[in-house]
Write a structure and sequence with these properties.
The complex is a heterotrimer of chains A (155), B (767) and C (121). Chain A has helices at 2-7, 67-70, 121-126, 150-154, and strands at residues 12-20, 23-28, 32-37, 51-57, 60-66, 83-89, 92-98, 100-108, 112-113, 127-133, 136-141. With 155 residues, chain A is mainly β. In chain B, a hairpin with a 2-residue loop joins strand 13 and strand 14 (628-633). Classes of the chains: A mainly beta (155), B alpha+beta (767), C alpha/beta (121). Chain C: It comes from Caulobacter zeae. Chain C: InterPro entries: Bact_response_regulator, CheY-like_superfamily, Sig_transdc_resp-reg_receiver.
C-alpha cells in the first residue's frame, strides 16, 4: 500500500497541516472544503465516543469527529482556537475537530515515507504515510478510513 | 446508445400514460360515453404503444398490441359494435397489454396462456362474420364525413388562383440541362446507359414533389443529361395550370440496376408516367406524343392510356386519375370533379383556419418544461434553508428586544410571509396529481371483485388533487389495501345485496381532497358496514382489549386496526395472508399520517386516510431531554400530560408504568434510552408524551420540558453519516442548531430490549 | 444552412426518436403534438420539411396535410408521413391528401434522412 505511494510520480501536491495535541497531521488540500471555528454540536445517541455529534453546515447535517479520540488519544477539549476541517471522504462530508491549523505544505510524493511498524494497527490504518519537512514529522490522514462503514454502526 | 436508452425510458413512461388513457377511455365507454373521440383515443393509445414497441423491437408487445389495435380499428369504424360485453373484453385486454408492457420493461412475466387466449378472443371479436365486403371501404368513407361541402364555386376560385401561381416547379421553355460534365462523355458502355422518360402529372406538384429533385436524385446514380420536351404545351389561353404537358427525357449513365432507378420515383408512383429503358432511347415517346397531340387533354384519358409505361399498379392509377384534377373529389362522388380542377381542397380551408384560431392555449408540447427532478429537489432543499434562516433571523431579532412595531420587525414579518409563499410555490412544482396512483385501481377492483365473486364498480373522485411526489409514491399500498378490504369485507355478495334490496353491483368510491393542509384519501363502500358486536367480541376473545372496557361505536370500529385482528371468517385470497388493516395503519403512520374508519350498519363504511402534503417537512413537538433538543413527530403523539405521583407505579426492579385511565403504559425515559444520561429523574418532574407506535403499542415517553409544536424541515442524517438507532432524521431549528427527530418506534423497541423487560399491559397486542 | 424539420406526432417516444435521428443528421427539429399544434408551429417556424404521423388527436395526419396544402404559403413544403407497413390504404389516403412521401415505421435513421433528402429542395 504505502510502497505504491512512494513509487508513484513525483507530482506536486498541496497539503493542509494541523495540530492534534502535540502531533502534526495533514490532509490533501483537494479534499478540504472549508475550515470553520468550533461551534457546539448536537450529540448523537448510540454513537462511538469519537463522534462529537452533528452541526448545521449551511443546511446540511454535518457529523463532527474528534480526530484525537479517533486516533486513540485523549478527547480534545475545544478552545477558541479549535477548528474543524470540513473534508470530503468518499460521498460523505465530515468535520474533523483539531486543535489548530498550522500551514499549507507543497510536497512531492517521494517525501512521503511509509508508516513505521511500531504504530498500532488502528493508527496505521488511518495514516497514509509520514512526511518529514524541516525536522517536523507530519502524518498524512487517509480520509476514506475515518468514518465507520455505514452499516457497521446501524446494527 | 445512451440517448436511445433514455428514449426507451420515455417510451415506458408514455406507455403508463397511454395505458391509463386506454383504461379511462374504455371505462368511459362502459358508462355509455362512446362518442367517436373516446373510441379514437382508445385506438390511438394502443396504436402508439405498438408504434414505440416496434421501434424498440419488443416483439411480443407489438404482436399483442397489433391484434388489439385491429379490433379497436374495427370498433371505431363501427364494424364491430361496442357492446357492454365487448367493452369488458377490451378492459381485460388492456390488462393483458399492461402485463406485456411490464414484461417488456423487465418487471414481471406475461402469462403466455392468458395472453394467447386473450389474443384469440380479440381476433374472434374482430372477425366480421357479417358484412365482409364493406370492411375495406368503411374507414375511408367514415373519415371523410366532414369534407363533402366542397362547393363548385369555391373550386373555381381556387382554379383562378392557380393560374397566377408560377410555383409549379417546372419551366415552360424547352431546354437542356447538363447536370454532370461527365455526361458529355458518350463513350460509356451501352449497358450502363438508361433512358428515363418522365411525364409528371399535376398531382406530382400538388404533393410538393419536384421534377428537379427527381433529376437530382437520378444524378446521384450517375451522370445525366435531361431534355424537356414542351411541344405539347398548349397556348396560354388554353393552358390548364394543373394539367401536365411536359415530358422529360433523361439519359442516365449508371452502374446501378433498374430497381435503383425506380426507387428514385417511389414517392411519385402514380403521379407521373415513367418509362425506363436500357440504352439510348428516343424521346419523346411516339405513342405519348400522339396522345398529347389532341387539344384540351382530358387527364383521365391521358393517364389511362399508356399502360406499359405507367409505373403504378393499374387499380391505383384508375383510382387517382379523377383525383388528380381536383383533390376535392375525395369528398364527393368522382365524376363531379372533372370540369373544375382545383389546386387544393378549398372547402377544407375555412374549417382548418377556424380550428387554428380556436387554439390560443399553447399545445401540450409548448407549455411543458421538462426539468431534472434533482434540480427541483435541490431547489426544495434551498428553500428549506431559507425557511430555517428566516426563522433564525427572527429569533435573533427577538432576542435583541426589538419592538414588533419597528420597521425591522415589520420587514422581517414580510420576509417570513414571502419565504412561506416561496416555499409553497416550490413545493407546488414537485406536486403531482394523485391520478398516477388512482389509475392503477380500476384493474385492482376488477381483479379483486372477480376473485371474491363480488360485483363492484369503482367511482373515483378528485384524481387531480395534488400532493408532493414523495408522498404519491407511498400512497399506492394503503389505497390498495383499503380497496381490497372494502370489496372483500365491505361489499356483500350479489345475492346478499339482492336480498337486502340493494343493487347487486356494489359501489366503491375512491376520493382525494385537500383538507387543512393535508391530503385526505377516502375509500368508501355501500356494503354491510361493520358488525360491531362481532368486532367487539373478537377483540375481547383475542385479548386485544379488556372485557370491562366501555367503548363507543367509533372506538369499536377502529379496533380493526389493532394488530392480530382479522374479521374474515376464512382467510381469502385477497385480504388474507396476514396483511390486515394494522399493516395499513402502520405504513400510514410511518408517513406521519392517520387513518380511521366510520361505518353505518347496512349502509357501508368509509376509510379516511390523511397524510401530510409532503415528506420534506414534518409536524413535530419540540422537547428538551437531558439538555438536548429533540423533535417528536406529532403523528405519533396521542396526548401530552404531567403525571401525578399516584399515576406512576413501579414495576419490577427499575421499570415503572403510567396509569392512563384504566390501562397501564410503560414509562420510557428518552434521555436514558438514548444514552444522554445515566439515571432518570422522577417522571413527575417531567412531561409525558403518550405515544402510539406503528404496531399500535403505546408508551409514555418522559421528557424534561415541552417547547411546543412546529413544522420542521426534514434533513437526512445518512447523507453524511449513517442511520442512528432511535433517530428518524434531523432538522435545523430556529437557533441554527441541529435537532434530532425521534424515531418513536425505535425508542420503544430499544427500551424493550433492555432487561428487565416490562410486563406488557393488556391493551398492547401480543406479538 | 441548417434545414428545419417539423415533426408532428402525439407519441413522445416517436418524437424523441425522430429528434434523435434528425438532430444527429444535422437538422434543426421543431415538434408538434398533433395536427392543430402542427399548424401553429408551422407558422412560427417555417420548416423545410414536415414529418407527420397519421393517428393523432384533435387534427389527424390527413386533416393536417390537407390544411397545409390548402395554404398557398405552405403548399410547396414537402410532407413525409409516418406509416406502418401493414396499412397501404393509409399511405394512399395520405398521398391523396397531399403527402409528398412516406416513412415506414419503425424507421432506421438512414432511411429517414434519405427520404428527407429526396424531397427537400
Amino acid at each position: 500500500m504505502t510502497e505504491e505511494i512512494i513509487t508513484t510520480t513525483a507530482e506536486r501536491r498541496e497539503l493542509i497541516s494541523f495540530r492534534v495535541g502535540e502531533q502534526e497531521y495533514c490532509v490533501d488540500i483537494m479534499a478540504v472544503r472549508e475550515i470553520r471555528g468550533w461551534s457546539p454540536a448536537t450529540t448523537l445517541p448510540q454513537s462511538p465516543g469519537y463522534m462529537r455529534g452533528v452541526i448545521n453546515l449551511r443546511g446540511a447535517v454535518l457529523p463532527i469527529m474528534d480526530l484525537a479520540c479517533r486516533l486513540g488519544m485523549p478527547v480534545i477539549e475545544p478552545t477558541v482556537r479549535s477548528v474543524f476541517i470540513v473534508v470530503k471522504a468518499g460521498d460523505r462530508m465530515i468535520g474533523m475537530l483539531v486543535d489548530a491549523v498550522s500551514d499549507i505544505l507543497s510536497i512531492t510524493d517521494d517525501l512521503v515515507q511509509p508508516t513505521p511498524d511500531l504504530a498500532c494497527d488502528t493508527v496505521r490504518s488511518f495514516i497514509r504515510g509520514i512526511i518529514s519537512i524541516d525536522g517536523r514529522m507530519i502524518s498524512e490522514i487517509s480520509l476514506d478510513r475515518l468514518l465507520p462503514e455505514r452499516e457497521a454502526l446501524a446494527a | 446508445m445512451d440517448e436511445l436508452e433514455a428514449i426507451k425510458v420515455t417510451f415506458f413512461q408514455e406507455c403508463e400514460e397511454l395505458l391509463a388513457d386506454l383504461e379511462g377511455g374504455l371505462l368511459a365507454m362502459q358508462d355509455g360515453n362512446d362518442d367517436g373521440d373516446t373510441v379514437n383515443a382508445v385506438f390511438r393509445a394502443v396504436h402508439s404503444i405498438k408504434g414505440g414497441a416496434g421501434a424498440f423491437g419488443l416483439e411480443p408487445l407489438v404482436r399483442f398490441a397489433h391484434v388489439f389495435e385491429t379490433l379497436l380499428d374495427a370498433v371505431r369504424s363501427n364494424e364491430v359494435p361496442a357492446t357492454p360485453d365487448l367493452v369488458v373484453t377490451l378492459l381485460r385486454a388492456s390488462d393483458v397489454l399492461a402485463d406485456h408492457v411490464s414484461s417488456a420493461r423487465g418487471l414481471g412475466v406475461v402469462d403466455e396462456a392468458v395472453s394467447a387466449a386473450m389474443a384469440a378472443e380479440l381476433k374472434a371479436c374482430t372477425d366480421p362474420n357479417a358484412a365482409p365486403a364493406p370492411v375495406a371501404a368503411a374507414p375511408v368513407v367514415e373519415a371523410f364525413e366532414a369534407a363533402p361541402v366542397a362547393a363548385p364555386a369555391d373550386a373555381l376560385i381556387g382554379a383562378d388562383d392557380a393560374l397566377d401561381d408560377d410555383d409549379l416547379g417546372f419551366d415552360f421553355q424547352p431546354m437542356t440541362i447538363t447536370i454532370d460534365e461527365q455526361a458529355a462523355d458518350v463513350a460509356a458502355a451501352v449497358g450502363n446507359v438508361w433512358t428515363v422518360s418522365i411525364r409528371p402529372k399535376s398531382d406530382l406538384y400538388r404533393k410538393a414533389n419536384e421534377t428537379a429533385l427527381l433529376l437530382r436524385e437520378l444524378a446521384r446514380l450517375g451522370p445525366i443529361e435531361a431534355t424537356l420536351d414542351a411541344s405539347a404545351i398548349p397556348p396560354l389561353d388554353q393552358l390548364d395550370a394543373e394539367a401536365a404537358y411536359a415530358t422529360w427525357t433523361v439519359r442516365l449513365e449508371t452502374e446501378e440496376d433498374e430497381t435503383a432507378i425506380r426507387e428514385v420515383f417511389e414517392f411519385v408512383d402514380g403521379d407521373c408516367d415513367l418509362e425506363i429503358t436500357r440504352g439510348e432511347g428516343l424521346a419523346p415517346d411516339a405513342a405519348l406524343a400522339a396522345l398529347l397531340a389532341g387539344d384540351a387533354p382530358a387527364p383521365a384519358v391521358v393517364e389511362a392510356a399508356p399502360e406499359p409505361v405507367v409505373l403504378a399498379e393499374a387499380p391505383v392509377v384508375v383510382e387517382t386519375a379523377p383525383v388528380a384534377a381536383a383533390p376535392v373529389v375525395e369528398t364527393a362522388p368522382a365524376p363531379v370533379a372533372a370540369p373544375a380542377p382545383a389546386p387544393a381542397p378549398v372547402a377544407a380551408a375555412p374549417a382548418a383556419a377556424a380550428k387554428t384560431q380556436q387554439i390560443d392555449v399553447p399545445g401540450p408540447g409548448q407549455s411543458v418544461i421538462r426539468v431534472d427532478p434533482e434540480r427541483i429537489d435541490r431547489l426544495i432543499d434551498l428553500v428549506g434553508e431559507l425557511v430555517i434562516n428566516q426563522a433564525m433571523l427572527a429569533q435573533r431579532v427577538g432576542e435583541y428586544g426589538i419592538a414588533p412595531s419597528s420597521n425591522l420587525a415589520m420587514g422581517l414579518d414580510e420576509l417570513e410571509q414571502l419565504t412561506r409563499e416561496i416555499q409553497d410555490s416550490v413545493m407546488a412544482i414537485r406536486a403531482q396529481p394523485v391520478k398516477s396512483v388512482f389509475q392503477r385501481m380500476p384493474r385492482l377492483v376488477r381483479e379483486v371483485a372477480s376473485m371474491t365473486g363480488k360485483q363492484a364498480r369503482l367511482v373515483m373522485d378528485g384524481e387531480n388533487t395534488e400532493v408532493d411526489k414523495t408522498v404519491i409514491e407511498r400512497l399506492s399500498d394503503p389505497i390498495t389495501h383499503m380497496l381490497r378490504n372494502a370489496i372483500d369485507h365491505g361489499l356483500e355478495s350479489p345475492e346478499e345485496r339482492k336480498a337486502a334490496g340493494k343493487n347487486p353491483e356494489g359501489v366503491v368510491r375512491l376520493a382525494a381532497l385537500h383538507r387543512s393542509g393535508r391530503i385526505v384519501i377516502e375509500v368508501s363502500d355501500d356494503g354491510k358496514g361493520i358488525n360491531r358486536e362481532r368486532v367487539h367480541s373478537i377483540a375481547i376473545k383475542k385479548g386485544l382489549i379488556s372485557p370491562e372496557l366501555q367503548l363507543t361505536d367509533e372506538e369499536i370500529d377502529n379496533l380493526i386496526f389493532l394488530p392480530g385482528f382479522s374479521t374474515a371468517d376464512k382467510i381469502s385470497d385477497v385480504s388474507g395472508r396476514g396483511v390486515g388493516m394494522d399493516v395499513v395503519k402502520r405504513s400510514v403512520q410511518a408517513l406521519g399520517g392517520r387513518i380511521s374508519i366510520t361505518s353505518r350498519p347496512g349502509q357501508g363504511s368509509t376509510f379516511t386516510l390523511s397524510l401530510p402534503l409532503t415528506l420534506a417537512v414534518l409536524d413535530g413537538m419540540v422537547v428538551d431531554v437531558a439538555g438536548e433538543t429533540l423533535v417528536v413527530p406529532l403523528a405519533a403523539i396521542v396526548e401530552s400530560l404531567r403525571p401525578k405521583p399516584e399515576e406512576v407505579r413501579p414495576l419490577g426492579p427499575v421499570g415503572s408504568v403510567l396509569a392512563v385511565r384504566d390501562s397501564f403504559v410503560p414509562l420510557i425515559d428518552v434521555g436514558l434510552t438514548l444514552g444522554y444520561r445515566e439515571a432518570s429523574p422522577p417522571p413527575t418532574e417531567g412531561v409525558v408524551l403518550l405515544v402510539e407506535g406503528e404496531d399500535g403499542s403505546r408508551a409514555a415517553l418522559v421528557a424534561d420540558a415541552i417547547h411546543g409544536q412546529r413544522q420542521v424541515v426534514i434533513k437526512s442524517l445518512e447523507q453524511n453519516y449513517q442511520q442512528v438507532d432511535g433517530v428518524a432524521a434531523a432538522t435545523i431549528l430556529g437557533d441554527g442548531r441541529v435537532a434530532l427527530i425521534l424515531d418513536v418506534d425505535a425508542v420503544i423497541s430499544l427500551r424493550r430490549r433492555e432487561p428487565p423487560r416490562p410486563v406488557e399491559p393488556t391493551l398492547i397486542a401480543a406479538e | 444552412m441548417t434545414r428545419t424539420v417539423l415533426t408532428v406526432d402525439d407519441s413522445r417516444t416517436m418524437r424523441d426518436m425522430l429528434r434523435m435521428a434528425l438532430a444527429g443528421a444535422g437538422f434543426n427539429v421543431v415538434e408538434a403534438v398533433d395536427g392543430e399544434h402542427g399548424l401553429e408551429v408551422l407558422s412560427a417556424h417555417r420548416p423545410d420539411v414536415i414529418i407527420t404521423d397519421i393517428n393523432m388527436p384533435k387534427l389527424d395526419g390527413f386533416g393536417f396535410i390537407e390544411a397545409v396544402r390548402v395554404d398557398d404559403d405552405y403548399r410547396a413544403i414537402p410532407i413525409l408521413v409516418l406509416t406502418t407497413e401493414s396499412d397501404p390504404a393509409k399511405k394512399d389516403r395520405a398521398r391523396r391528401a397531399g403527402a409528398t412521401g412516406w416513412i415506414v415505421k419503425p424507421f432506421n435513421p438512414e432511411k429517414l434522412v434519405d427520404a428527407i433528402r429526396r424531397v427537400a429542395a
